[in-house]
């Protein structure tokens, strides 16, 4: 159902942590695939091989990586993520509620708690609604008038 487009980075423990938070959702069928996008560095390639994710090798900024990941996605929805901030327990509930009753609208998944509530985990977008000129997550969310989901 959801293709997670995860920006590859040098923060391998952060990437592995994000991917670990996605495992229960993958087992339950909510996450269809995880696509790491960025430079094909040895640590990233090993993480992809060990996890069963796909790697889309792209040179460029975050916007170029997100666009390449979205183009490779096969799920009905795309959730963008980075190595940080890390997803926490409970992230699935607002996402599942939104998918069930959001009428196809895009959403921003915000990190929980206090001042950190403004931190962005990622953007949830129907694959067919991904714009040709997307930009980074905040620009994408603004262009799509995404609703805010906080857990």
The backbone outline, from C-alpha atoms, is: globular
Low-confidence stretches: none
Order of helices and strands: EHEHEHEHEEHE
N→C terminal distance: 20 Å
Give the C-alpha Rg.
14 Å
Classified by CATH, the class is: Alpha Beta
Structural class: alpha/beta
Strand order, sheet with most strands? 3-2-1-4-6-5-7
Sheet bearing the most strands, described?
A: 7 strands, mixed
Which percent bin holds the helix content? Answer: 25-40%
Keywords: Transferase
Protein name: Cell wall biosynthesis glycosyltransferase
GO molecular function: transferase activity
Organism: Caulobacter segnis
Structural description of this entry:
There is one protein chain. A 7-stranded mixed beta sheet has the order 3-2-1-4-6-5-7, sandwiched between helices. With about 150 residues, the protein is an alpha/beta fold. It is built from 5 helices and 7 strands, in the order βαβαβαβαββαβ. The radius of gyration is 14 Å and the shape is globular. Helix 1 links the parallel strand 1 and strand 2. Helix 1 packs parallel to helix 2. It is about 35% helix and about 25% strand. The protein has one domain: Spore Coat Polysaccharide Biosynthesis Protein SpsA, Chain A (Alpha-Beta Complex), CATH 3.90.550.10. The longest helix has 16 residues, at about 10-25.
In short:
With 151 residues, this protein is of the alpha/beta class. The protein has 5 helices and 7 strands. Strands 3-2-1-4-6-5-7 form a 7-stranded mixed beta sheet, sandwiched between helices.
């Amino acid at each position: 159902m959801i293709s997670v487009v995860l920006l590859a980075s040098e923060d391998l423990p952060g990437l592995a942590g994000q991917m670990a938070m996605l495992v229960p959702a993958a087992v339950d069928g909510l996450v269809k695939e995880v696509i790491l996008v960025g430079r094909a560095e040895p640590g990233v390639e090993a993480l992809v091989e060990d996890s069963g994710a796909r790697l889309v090798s792209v040179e460029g900024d975050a916007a170029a990586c997100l666009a390449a990941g979205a183009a490779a996605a096969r799920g009905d929805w795309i959730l963008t993520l980075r190595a940080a901030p890390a997803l926490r327990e409970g992230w699935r509930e607002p996402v599942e509620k939104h998918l069930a009753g959001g009428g196809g609208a895009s959403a921003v998944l915000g990190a929980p708690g206090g001042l950190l509530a403004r931190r962005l985990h990622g953007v949830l977008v129907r694959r067919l609604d991904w714009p040709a000129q997307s930009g980074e997550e905040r620009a994408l969310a603004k262009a799509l008038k995404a609703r805010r989901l906080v857990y």
